Amino acid sequence: MILLRTLALGAVALITASCGVGGTHNSAVEASGGTESAPILTTADARDPHSYARPLEARVNDVALDLALDFRAKRVGGTATLDIDRKPDAKEIILDTDNLEIQSVADAAGKPLDYKVGTDDPKMGAPLTIALGPDTKKIVIRYRSGPDAEALQWLVPEQTAGKKHPYLFSQGQPTLNRTWIPTQDSPGIRQTWSATVTAPEPLNVVMSGERLTPNGEPAGEGRRAFRFRMDKPVAPYLIAIAAGDIAFRKLGPRTGVWTEPAMLDRAAAELADTEKMVEAAEKLYGPYRWGRYDMLVLPPSFPYGGMENPTLTFLTPTFIAGDKSLVSLVAHELAHSWSGNLVTNATWADSWLNEGFTNYFENRIMEAIYGTRRAQQEAALSFDDMMETLDEEGMSDPTTRLNLPPAEATPEGGATGIVYDKGAIFLRTIESIVGREAWDAYLRSYFDRYAFEPMTSARFLADLREHLVKGDSALEKKLMLDEWVYQPGLPSNVARPAPSAFAAVDRAIAGFKGGGAVPTGFAGWTTAEKLRFLNGLPRKLPTRRLGELDRQLRLNAAGNNEVLFAWLELAVANRYDPAVPALERFLTTQGRRKFVAPLIEALAKDQQWGRPIAARIYPKARPLYHPITTRGLDELGLPAG
Description:
Neutral Protease, domain 2; Serine Threonine Protein Phosphatase 5, Tetratricopeptide repeat; Immunoglobulin-like
């Protein structure tokens, strides 16, 4: 690892389409519209231990799907045709699968190819090893997904807003797409793709690529076919699909929103500033390279805040507050169009290269659209989240490194307070040292140099040293780059948030702690100010004081889900019975893991008061939740229904 940290940029080896020929950065890919293979990094830190693939021998270059959606069986099935690049002497290619039912494997001429599905691993799935003939360049796999494919959630009509039609959506990150697509499921093996998908009428199908059939095409009795294309190489986890009773509304020349008709007005109003966000992002760090930027507001069971699928960000409806107070989520997913989708971490050990960069970029978009005060407050909350994680884990714990050590570098590894917040604060610290103008110029050039390529921490630091530090030993010392990336804890040069960001709120917190009144201006505060106040209160409060907060601030009826969650965490910690009806509504009407998991876990740990409540609520709520959300919660020993 020490040698990798000091590699000169020119020594970072790449392979391109011929699995052995050295290539330049992104010029060939962009000039061809993404039809050439994206490079594979060959350094040891770029090898993904969570994929069975051996891409230096044979790798997937393009995936063409021809699938039918079966809502009764809760399966997708059809063919995946893989274009592959290989060394001339490669005898086999290894793909990632997870509970796929493989029916046949053949070459382009239909000649069967020998294959073997290996032993299943609970975390990685099973390798699919396919024998290659001397000239095999294309593989056709006939298959169907298992009935419990973890990437796919099949909703019955009652779980949707319209209550009339079923719904399907996928969530592929980090390694779940192998449950419905047989390919090399590693972020460092970028692939182009296309798809033809049939679904029962009147359902609409959307995917994270260019939509080639605006209204679908007849595909037999009672079915329609939809065709899509992504001609730029993307990480496999970014292939996404949804199908249901969904409609579209234009927001700007290249932006729009899909969602169920009953939700369309509210979603469009909340997302009205999206086109401005795209314009602001381009002014900061260069052109948006994906064509359209549309969003899909999903049913409330979606387990995350958002997912940055190219051309079609998936969003939770919990961000809709009616006042655009939570649209930093949209800025975050948009920023991923540069950090994450354009330049992608090669392995999950370096997730901070996606999320830390994106948190920083999100804040810059928010500043450009909504002003410095709001951006400073949201950055200060991010700093608080980082410090909370550092306090919980300890400054010397290896999980507080940005580049995670092998034992911690799982696809789900790393605390959000580190991967997201410490990563962003590292970049903000660089900005504070070199100045915003120089930092912005560097970041813009970085995204240009490595567009459509994978990235590692070592590669990023080598580039930073070549193009920003430029041999300036004094600047190198000030930046403390290796300490930030490879050491736990918090370096001494950290850029701290502006003390003025929450001065008035902090006075209100101190007053309430001292026995003073509930702040009267709470209703007019920003969301960040409300969260600062609620999260800054003592975790143990008497029922009388909780009642004062509840009555005067109307917290049980809060329409902002972030504020409601902060209140419910405090209420559960204090066994506050008047909050239980609001708690039950919250847990049974949305499945965002960020909200659901902490509350149910806290209830389950409280044997006397909380566990009976959890035992009553969880069986009712669980059918709404995505498998990502129930993972871990099922281990609490609560009734599952």
